[in-house]
Amino acid sequence: MKIKDIGEFGFIKLINKGLINNPEAVVQGIGDDTAVLAPSGKNQLLFTTDMMVEEVHFSLRYATYRQVGHKALAVNLSDIAAMGGKPTHAVVSLGVPPERAVEDLQELYRGMADLAARFGVNIVGGDTVKTAGQLVINVALLGEVAPGRAIYRSGAEEGDYILVTGTLGDSAAGLYLFQNQDVELAQEIGDTLRKRHLEPEPRLDIGPLLAETGLVTAINDISDGLAREISEICEASGVGCRLIDKKIPISEEARVLGEITGHSPVEWALNGGEDFQLVFTVEPDGLDEIEETLRKRGVAYGIVGVITSLEQGIGLVTEKGIQPLAKGGYDHFSG
Amino acid sequence: MKIKDIGEFGFIKLINKGLINNPEAVVQGIGDDTAVLAPSGKNQLLFTTDMMVEEVHFSLRYATYRQVGHKALAVNLSDIAAMGGKPTHAVVSLGVPPERAVEDLQELYRGMADLAARFGVNIVGGDTVKTAGQLVINVALLGEVAPGRAIYRSGAEEGDYILVTGTLGDSAAGLYLFQNQDVELAQEIGDTLRKRHLEPEPRLDIGPLLAETGLVTAINDISDGLAREISEICEASGVGCRLIDKKIPISEEARVLGEITGHSPVEWALNGGEDFQLVFTVEPDGLDEIEETLRKRGVAYGIVGVITSLEQGIGLVTEKGIQPLAKGGYDHFSG
To answer: What is the C-alpha separation between A13 and B107, in angstroms, rounded?
Structure first.
């Protein structure tokens, strides 16, 4: 069955189930001109949006519809995590070529709904429209944070430690495997890397806890590669930094793929993007407590460098000495 | 200059001016992972989103980029008006073919920013990504309403009057003129109708005031034609209605165009859509006060029918007797 066979309103009826996970906060969900929501007390609101376009941000040659739905919400959840907040409500716009199968679009919604359920997020509205050829998904997401607790990019100071969660470069390594399908590699290793690319996990397990400590001075989520994300923090904060290449956490899987293919996993970490881990800076005397917080939650991390003065610029410490770090990252309209 | 020449980040710098109209409500606007907002007191939140796709919702053969920007925000503002609320903050996603001129996209933003300024709305974030051929604009909009004051589609009761604001069918008449450019018509009349189609005016001047009276039982904004909008109210409320064709307010301009072309302006009003006026129902003993409210604000209106029992169905009273009203309206994926 194609979406043009059941129409916009038939489709809404099909997917309008299991989208409310925190009913107390919803006065009116899907079904009126707008959703009506009850914000909790005196929190500040977080508000973000991301658009994903077929063959630009994802390809159905690699990803299932369910994974596309997962990722469309995950990238927004990651932005809330990077503010130290808690996500609450989402609205979802879908631009769909009329020939697409209803079942596939239901799968896409399932990918979103499953992830929303895990974090108590309500999907409270949306729009479904026609496009000529490309599937387009836009998610707008609300979150909350206690007043004054949001963490910006601009708070890093000279002497702060730079930490990252998880391992970096796995998503880029997974994408490399999709684009180079003749690489011979143990199935398990390939599966792990491909999944990291297709099903990123927003770090909501740790972002809000980091904010609560009051010891974290700046955070970004790593959507565009560590080089760009730390550059953004340094620019916004008016500081420089030294990243230490050997301290960037690389997974065993990415290391193996790098060896087989002659690629540098550190390069994937710096400029690959879409890991959706967090990079954050910590006051010098706060490091012990932050490490304790990370360990308690079982969050893998690495101390990858330090914040310096602005004059020292943004540098990468390597065996060959300090190299200036190119900003890197993905610009939609370059090249 | 094309957007691919200055890139995503260059473009953000260009448009990131004059987007905040109510700075007190903004803790952090564009420039971090998410916006941070300060909601005012104990109001409930309204949350809505609409996606507009080139050659589906608009065509640059008819509209300027500035008008496209205006309309993308206007349709969302109209949804807030139809809840009786006040709009507060928007995030804007733009999917752009790389060959588009930066100046045109700035014009698009100007159309949005000018309208936002008129209603004290802040544009606090967004996303700018690449598409293959079609321009895609998604706006997600927040608003506020006093607890319990939001007006739904579901509150209409038997005996309520049905009112509409403004005149209906003008937008469809304007679209007809774009699609039939050989129609001979006084310039002024054509200009008025074309402008109604390209630059719809959200009824924020009256929506919140209607909500405050406590006498309005249901509202919809007329995005899909009066027939569909009143049908939605009747379905949600479990009632029927009688619309009276002669009572539907038709502009002099639409009447003239109808006469010249042999089209029925009432048909445009019922099934044309995109007028973005309001249709609403009023308790029988509240009509005097509502008419007084409308008159005081200089809002043109018509009393177009009454709510009946469910059993009587949805009917249009015409010279030929009562006809069942087809739901009509635009379905993206039908036909």
So the answer is: 37
For A132, name the nearest residue in chain B, comparing CA atoms only: B134
A-chain residues within 8 Å CB-CB of B34?
Answer: 46-48, 79-80, 82-83, 85, 143
**A221, A79 Cβ separation under 8 angstroms:** yes
Distance of CA B288 to the CA centre of its chain: 26
Residues in B touching A80 (Cβ below 8 Å): 33-34
Q: What is the CA radius of gyration of chain A?
A: 21
Angle between helices A170-179 and A252-261 (to 10 degrees): 40
In which residue are the tokens 């054509």 written? B190
Give A257→chain B minimum CA distance, Å.
Answer: 30
CA–CA dist A52, A137 (Å, integer): 5
Instruction: Give the C-alpha separation, B250 to B302, whole Å.
Output: 10
Strand, coil or helix: what is B53? strand
Of the candidates A226, A236, A222, the one whose C-alpha atom is nearest the C-alpha of residue A310 is A236
Mean pLDDT of chain A: 94
Q: Does the pLDDT at position A225 exceed 50?
A: yes
Structural domains for chain B: 3-145 (3.30.1330.10), 161-324 (3.90.650.10)
- Average pLDDT over every residue of A149-173: 97
Percent of chain A with pLDDT over 90: 87
Give residue-wise pLDDT tens across range A48-71: 999 999 999 999 999 999 999 999
